[in-house]
Amino acid sequence: MTIVDEQGRAEPPVASGETDTLLGFLEFHRATLEWKCAGLDADSLRATVGASSMTLGGMLKHLAYVEAHWFSRALHDRGLGDPWDAVDWKSDPDWDWHSAARDSPDELFRVWRDAVLRSRELTSEALADGGLDRLATRGWPDGRRPSLRWIVVHMIEEYARHNGHADLIRESIDGVTGE
């Protein structure tokens, strides 16, 4: 039985296997970011808090890139896709963050949702080819390669950390608070 909270997020299963539990938490954190960014205009998605240059729009675009990096490039050694393949990351390593200011809310959500959809498909493919123990095709320079399990846990951590930032930014925009 899936329980959906008042923000429309499916709560992670409370008594399930490892795969369903991990993917449930990843989906919950994805939905939390979407909730924190929902209904905002372009100016609000560009808003910052204090000395930080972090924005909700930048967060959407950054997490879309992180999805593509881990699930497409690292896990399957496939291209990142549009818009990532055209970026000169060496000359502009924070392109995902600051280029978001030029994008409309619709474009930011499209890029993020497309990345999440592709990541779900690539995760399903990897689960069918070794499960959570499946190693990424690409790894670190020392030869280590993370498992799909490691990638999913890392993505949960990445979303959880940025959802904390999103809470602060959203509250500064219109007072909306919660998780």
CATH fold name: Four Helix Bundle (Hemerythrin (Met), subunit A)
Would you identify the CATH H-level superfamily?
dinb family like domain
Mean pLDDT: 96
Rg value: 17 Å
| Secondary structure: helix percent | 55-70%
Give descriptors for this structure.
Four Helix Bundle (Hemerythrin (Met), subunit A); 179 residues; mainly alpha
Walk me through the structure.
InterPro entries: DinB/YfiT-like, MST-like. This is Mini-circle protein. The chain has one domain: Four Helix Bundle (Hemerythrin (Met), subunit A) (Up-down Bundle), CATH 1.20.120.450. By secondary structure, it is mainly alpha-helical. Helix 3 (56-76) packs parallel to helix 5 (105-128). It contains six helices and no strands. The relative contact order is 0.17. The mean pLDDT is 96. The two termini are 22 Å apart. The chain has helices at 18-37, 42-45, 56-76, 95-98, 105-128, 148-174. The chain is globular and about 45 Å long.
Summarize the structure.
This protein is an all-alpha fold and about 180 residues long. It has helices spanning about 20-35, 40-45, 55-75, 95-100, 105-130, 150-175. This is Mini-circle protein.
Write the layout of secondary structure elements.
Blueprint: H1 18-37, H2 42-45, H3 56-76, H4 95-98, H5 105-128, H6 148-174
Helix pairs in contact: 1-6, 3-5, 3-6
